Amino acid sequence: MIIPILIMCLILTTLMCLYRVIKGPTVFDRLIAADAAGIMVAVIIPLLGYYFEQPFLYDIALVYGLLLFLDMLIFAKYLEKGEILK
Amino acid sequence: MNIRELLGIALFVTGIFFMLVTALGMIRFEDVFMKFHFGSKCLTAGAISILSGAILYKGMADGTGKIVIMLVFLAITNPLASHALAKAAYSKGVLPKNLKRDDYGGNYESVD
After folding, report:
1. Sign of torsion, CA A65 A71 A74 A78?
2. A66 within some domain
3. Is residue A86 part of a domain?
4. Contact call for residues B25 and A16 (beta carbons, < 8 A)
5. Are B82 and A32 within 8 A, CB to CB?
6. What are the backbone dihedrals phi and psi of residue A23, each rounded to the nearest 5 degrees, phi first?
7. CB distance A36–B26 less than 8 Å?
């Protein structure tokens, strides 16, 4: 019974973070808000897998977290140095 | 309802409190580095609390090990990504608003 309430609250916080993604003054505001929203979605996905009893969603959450981390590192390196690979 | 599920529900409530504080900080604060503060500390605490609550609420079943791997992975990599983004922001010349003293002194090339 508590799992659907938890998923609804997490979707609400994700939408509150997406407000800052749309209306950020600088690019770093948008990036850190997108990181926060992505981690909230990566927490929602295993709860959905537990609620609907679909075990393959745990694998999807793992790969999503890995790609999010790689994404943020590539953005940071590109914005700092101006190039990714030499 | 036994004591394990009650502990899981308590961890769920703690985690959703941290997530709401993170979202409010993302909306209300104007400075970039305050947002990095929320995005590295408060969000990691919320994710660890909710995933630990899911492990306790569920018990030993299929997929619990994957949630443990994901918890350790998020606890390591989320502050790392925030640190990389903060370093990039300082290197591009974005400074805090009420800055009293800058130890790097505007020497953006030597930031490690």
Report:
1. negative
2. yes
3. no
4. no
5. yes
6. -115, 60
7. yes
Whole-number Å distance between alpha carbons of B98 and B106: 16
Mutate to test the interface with B, among A14, A39, A78 (most CBs of B within 10 A): A39
Tokens of B79: 């502050």
The domain of A36 spans 2-81
pTM score, whole prediction = 0.89
DSSP calls for A28-65:
HHHHHHHHHHHHHHHHHHHHHHHHTT-THHHHHHHHHH
Q: How many CB pairs under 8 A join A and B?
A: 132
**pLDDT tens-digit series, residues B31-72:** 888 889 888 899 999 999 999 999 999 888 788 899 999 999
Q: What is the ipTM of this complex?
A: 0.88
A41 domain-assigned? yes
DSSP class per residue in B32-50: HHHHHHIIIIIHHHHHHHH
Say if A20 falls within a structural domain.
Answer: yes
Half-sphere exposure of residue A68: CA atoms within 13 angstroms, side-chain side: 27
- What's the total number of domains in chain A? 1
Q: Scanning every residue of chain A, which has its alpha carbon at the shortest distance from the alpha carbon of B93? A: A80
- pLDDT tens, position by position, A30-58: 999 999 999 999 999 999 999 998 889 99
Triad B69, B85, A10: Cα angle to 5°: 50
Residues 6 or more apart whose CB falls under 8 angstroms from that of B75 comprise B44, B47, B48
